[in-house]
Write a structure and sequence with these properties.
By secondary structure, the protein is an alpha/beta fold. The chain has five helices and five strands, in the order E-H-E-H-H-E-H-E-H-E.
Length: about 130
């Protein structure tokens, strides 16, 4: 199976959705690729992914995450990389925001929409968060 994900948002819940599905799919031997664009780039930014915002009024989830032993986002990012999830940072968005590859976690690719479309063209599942 092949799973293609577009990550365009940067909240804590967005990160959990993206990386939970990506790691679950990769753990079942699916080929997984995530295209990070606009605010979604924060999910793989070396510093930003450690301090993602929770939606207002949902602070109680933090305690629930701890009780349920849900790994922190930083750990999920590492798990995704270890499982071979292809992570593509959007070159256009990086240019617009004056960001460099060195500001992101190790092991990402940088490419444009065509790079992602080439990966996603025969995906069995395509998701956007």
């Amino acid at each position: 199976m092949k799973v293609a994900i577009i990550a365009a948002n940067s909240g804590m819940f967005d990160a959990y959705k993206v990386f939970n599905i990506a790691t679950a799919a990769a753990a079942t031997d699916a080929e997984v690729g995530i295209f990070f664009t606009f605010e979604g780039l924060n999910l793989i930014h070396k510093e930003a992914h450690k301090n993602l915002p929770m939606p207002a009024g949902t602070e109680h989830f933090q305690e629930g995450f701890k009780k349920a032993n849900v790994p922190p986002v930083e750990e999920l990012v590492g798990m995704a990389a270890d499982l071979g999830v292809k992570m593509i940072a959007c070159q256009m968005t990086m240019d617009v925001m004056s960001l460099e590859k060195e500001q992101f976690i190790e092991g990402i690719d940088v490419g444009g929409a065509v790079t992602f479309l080439t990966f996603a063209k025969d995906a069995d599942v395509t998701l956007t968060f």
